[in-house]
Amino acid sequence: MFYRASLQAAAAFASLSLLAGCGLFSDSGSETDQRIAVGTTSSPSTLDPAAAWDGSWELMRNVFQTLVSFPTGATSPAPDAAESCDFTDLTSTAYRCTLRQGLKFSNGEKIDAKAVKYSIERILKIKVKSGPAGLLGSLDHVETKGEDTVVFHLNKSDATFPFILATPAMSLVAPGDYPADTIRDDGKVTGSGPYLLDSYETGKKAELTKNPDYKGFANRKNDAVTIHYFKDSAPMVDALKKDEIDATYRGLTAGEVVALEDGKADEKGLRIVETVGADIRFLVFNPKDPAAGKLPVRRAIAQLVDRDALVAKVYQGTAEPLYSMVPKGIAGHTTSFFDSFGDPDRKKAKAILEEAGIDTPVAMTFWYTTDRYGSSTAPEFAELKRQLEESGLFEIKLKSAPWSAFQEGFSKGEYPVFGRGWFPDFPDPDNFIAPFVGKDSVTGTPYAADEITRQLLPESRKESDRGAVSTQFKRAQEILVEDVRLLPLWQGKLYVASGDDIGGGERALDPQTVMQLWELYRKASW
């Protein structure tokens, strides 16, 4: 996806427990009548799903429904507003869903096949710039059959379509409250999700209460949630220490995570849980640049970059070295770059350049953005510069720009080498390969990769069993290593901090790293 602008910093998420001896909590208890207060640095940019392709998904997951979604612990979509969904053919070109009976929106409107068709088609009709319409590139048309059945006809095989329908961008909206051709902007929400949005103050607070008419998979362990939006993480952590909020679910910096893990917070009763995340960082090489366009130069850089040192020095262990564009935790993950280049080695890098007759040091310019991926980006690029120059084989000049100017620059092909981040739309290897290849690569630098675009991806998209496409994605990752047009650097870890009376944090993130607030609850004792 276009990188979620509101997702900040290197380590900013939540999930599996680090706490020795703490198992999963019971779904029952008398404390579910209490409101839970959470803090985040990721405030919504919109309340209308048709415009949302960013951190707005956090709130939307909790107040809207999608036909399919990710129940706790699931790795593939399961029915939510739908009673059942499946492909009707062997080539994954027609996807049929039958709705649950008795569903209705919070304004009383019935949720039927026409409402589903309306919700999806308005995304394409409005087509917000940098919005989610791009996710529906394989959709040809939507057909309704009776009141409770809808069929999505695709213009090509696309076994990832259920994953797309599971994104909060595909939330079902009430036709009576959402215009067909414009974005709703009155600051209100009409959905059918686990919670109702009682009130919303832009950039400050959202008040949620349990939706009494909700019918879906969510087992709500609290009755109400207040979300506090913070501009920076420091006041958020301070609020947690003062018991003004119960938990944080996005925005912790590396330093704050380390302090909490080491018990340096000097506050009694705070806990932190961790798991591997799916957000990644990587370098992009412009093939039209005199230096970056040379494969031996790219291979030499790949041979020199020390990911372990980068993660240790800059991110203090709150990220993991990444040796493939498909990260750890996603089906099809490999360590293809490590398999090909091994540990950092100056002698091997020098030999690569000498064999190609390339004079050293090679002068290059690396670009990064100052306001999109957190405050650690500048130190990260300083460390990359140090590593490459320490070899004596490169002279690196660093340049930076705010996101708006940065995006314009790389889209015009002005940058020789630049850093990008990727936050997945859905947990499938396709979403870590397809966006970066082809003439419309989201990196702004067209990347033909014909074997991937014409053979491997089309083959994989015919297979609805996503566990059966490892061969195609293994080969795709081998091609990315052969070309070194993209150089993966690291993947984030996910964290949530909370008071020790709050349970459910280890179950609260779905595979899209979107918080399921209904999993949080207050415990009287541990």
Automatic annotation (TrEMBL):
<dbReference type="InterPro" id="IPR030678">
    <property type="entry name" value="Peptide/Ni-bd"/>
</dbReference>
<feature type="signal peptide">
    <location>
        <begin position="1"/>
        <end position="20"/>
    </location>
</feature>
<comment type="similarity">
    <text>Belongs to the bacterial solute-binding protein 5 family.</text>
</comment>
<dbReference type="InterPro" id="IPR000914">
    <property type="entry name" value="SBP_5_dom"/>
</dbReference>
<keyword id="KW-0813">Transport</keyword>
<protein>
    <submittedName>
        <fullName>Peptide-binding protein</fullName>
    </submittedName>
</protein>
<feature type="domain" description="Solute-binding protein family 5">
    <location>
        <begin position="77"/>
        <end position="440"/>
    </location>
</feature>
<dbReference type="InterPro" id="IPR039424">
    <property type="entry name" value="SBP_5"/>
</dbReference>
<keyword id="KW-0732">Signal</keyword>
<dbReference type="Pfam" id="PF00496">
    <property type="entry name" value="SBP_bac_5"/>
</dbReference>
